[in-house]
Amino acid sequence: MDTLKAIQVFVCIEKNGSLTKAADQLGYSRAMVSRYLEHLENHFSTRLFHRSTRNISLTSAGEKALLYCQNILQQQKLLQELSLEEQYTGTIRLTCGLFILENGLVQAIQAFQKKYTHIRFDILITEETLDLVEAQIDVAFRITAKVSDSLIARPLLQVHSVLCAHREYLEALPKIVHPDQLIQYACITHHSMQNTWTLSTQEQQPQNYPIRIVAQSNDAHALHQMCRNKMGIAMLPYTIVKDDLENRTLIEVLSNYEAPQMTLSAVYSSRRYLPKKTQEFIAFVIEHLKK
């Protein structure tokens, strides 16, 4: 039985001078109140009340116990108040790539801080897969197809990628019509990729095609800049290259093939011990990105 709850029942009985009145105030049955009192008396190995058919009064041991129990409840209240204060103050330490920050996350942070003015953010910009515990990260925002089994991932949205290259780079070379030709072209790729790109069509299952890598980076913006500078073909999130594709600075390559769908997820190390403010922030970001 819950000893702390039994202490609350004991103090309430003394305050009301009756088990029945205490039961009414607490919303318990009289039998439940009686069981809590019995539990506490067994726990302390002493009788706390003199009881008769009409009256109830504290024993000498009960008088001493009441002072201690009142103090315990007061300390619990102070701890709860401290906990509530801590839940929405302090720092949320997060990590993400610059691309993610600039495409919705910074606006979510700004809106969240208007609601919770005592929360500040410590943001580590990287697309590397950090050890969240070692780096003391509360939450990581990652674009990935899979996360470690030891981590919790909350999917936020799907990220569509395209193959593209600068118009002038493509004009100087034979037209590329099949992924098998990628090995003949300069390719710019993310560190998370290997020496192949996975592509598929409606008629064809995903297949790995070898590529000739001329440059790699762990940052999507760096890859975008290299692509804009005519260094080769890159696989980039559509949101980064949308304007370039529309004004035809960049041209989509192998448009009838699809790159794997990646997922932007909020990743954290433990659901059980995730601070309340971090839980609230993740939920806030999910709703913000839906708009």
TrEMBL record:
The GO terms describing molecular function are: DNA-binding transcription factor activity; sequence-specific DNA binding
Give the HTH lysR-type domain ranges: 1-59
UniProt entry keywords in alphabetical sequence: DNA-binding, Transcription, Transcription regulation
GO biological process terms, alphabetically, are: DNA-templated transcription
Read off the Gene3D superfamilies from this record. 3.40.190.290, Winged helix-like DNA-binding domain superfamily/Winged helix DNA-binding domain
Q: Which domain of life is it from?
A: Bacteria
Pfam families, per this entry?
HTH_1, LysR_substrate
Which CDD domains is this protein grouped with? PBP2_CrgA_like
Name the InterPro entries for this protein: LysR-type_TF_proteobact-type, LysR_HTH_N, LysR_subst-bd, WH-like_DNA-bd_sf, WH_DNA-bd_sf
Q: Which PANTHER family match?
A: HTH-TYPE TRANSCRIPTIONAL REGULATOR, TRANSCRIPTIONAL REGULATORY PROTEIN
Q: Which family does it belong to?
A: Belongs to the LysR transcriptional regulatory family.
Q: What is this protein called?
A: LysR family transcriptional regulator
